Amino acid sequence: MTDSDKVFLITGASSGIGEATARRAVEAGHRVVLGARSVDKLEALAEELGGPERAIAVKCDVTEWPDQQALAETAIGRFGQIDVALANAGFGAKRGFLEESPEFWKSMVLTNVYGCALTIRAALPALKESRGHLLLTGSVAGRRALPGSLYSATKWAVTAMGEAARQELNGTGVRVTLIEPGSVDTPFFDSPPAGALEPDDIARAILYAVSQPPHVDVNELLIRPTSQEN
């Protein structure tokens, strides 16, 4: 199977790492299925990437199971398969357990943790059939606790999900990769840290993992800016 036959599903695809990965995936020959809540941005990106023959946009709130099912079903209905799935949707919060509102916290936990789990659940049957590749966007914050950071706790959960999925899928031919970015200049930050990575830096790492031969499973990629201390 050539890359032009492969189907790459991405959540959180309308901006940042998801958008950059979609661009790199199409450049590498993949067809892409793009999910996000920002449907206008998503449709414009899909059109830019080649339209219905190469890229399709599906409105998807990752915290809603019917939306996740529809995303996977649309991919299979349009392109016949899912070869790669990137559970990428997520957002952060201010540090401090007296910061943000409980409602904001709830939305973040549902998106970052529950939403990631739903993407795995929705894509898994097709990935098993294609002996494909599951990728999860974690974080350096999912490897070291940050002071007062509930966001960090959600990414620790994603780290655990990556290993739990790898163990469950051992022997199926499905590869699992946890992507752990450091500081990245995305909509996550109002003012990104000096020296932050660009979304395309992470996208290239994702495509590196995906491009390995089937017997090579790159389980984790932790990518920091050269200037990032922790």
Question: What key attributes describe this structure?
Answer:
single chain, 230 residues, alpha/beta, 7 strands, globular
Task: Explain what you see.
The protein is of the alpha/beta class. Helix content is 43%, strand content 16%. The protein contains 6 helices and 7 strands; from the N terminus they run βαβαβαβαβαβαβ. The chain has helices spanning 16-27, 39-48, 65-79, 102-130, 150-169, 199-210; strands at residues 7-11, 31-36, 55-59, 84-87, 133-137, 175-181, 220-223. It has a 7-stranded parallel β-sheet with strand order 3-2-1-4-5-6-7, sandwiched between helices. Strand 5 (133-137), helix 5 (150-169) and strand 6 form a beta-alpha-beta unit. Helix 1 crosses helix 6 (199-210) and helix 3 (65-79) runs parallel beside helix 4 (102-130). The longest helix is centred in the middle third of the chain and has 29 residues, at 102-130. The radius of gyration is 16 Å and the shape is globular.
